[in-house]
Write a structure and sequence with these properties.
- The protein is α+β, with helices and mostly antiparallel strands.
- Strands 3-2-1-4-5 form a five-stranded antiparallel sheet, with no helix packed on it.
- It contains two helices and five strands.
- It has two domains: 30 residues; 57 residues, OB fold (Dihydrolipoamide Acetyltransferase, E2P).
Amino acid sequence: MRHPAAVGTLLLALVVGVSPMPLATAGRHAGGNYSVFPRVVATVMALEPRGLAAIRTSEGATYEVLTGTTWHVGDTVECEYATRWRARWQALDCRKTS
């Protein structure tokens, strides 16, 4: 009579092991998607076509990034290096601070 109990235990282990719950919570508990690089503070130098902005850091480095909806020339933005990027203008994730 141990056979039905073993089958039930095996089915329970299979259902728990295949469930999407461990995968869904793994990203949050494993550290998530955050950058280990320091934040970059920059000034918007120009608003370019197609939703891009040219920004310059206090060190003098210039970048092209995606424009926020309320950005204007002269605004201060704070940027983090994106953990996943495909194009050069997606390397920084910026938000307006002033």
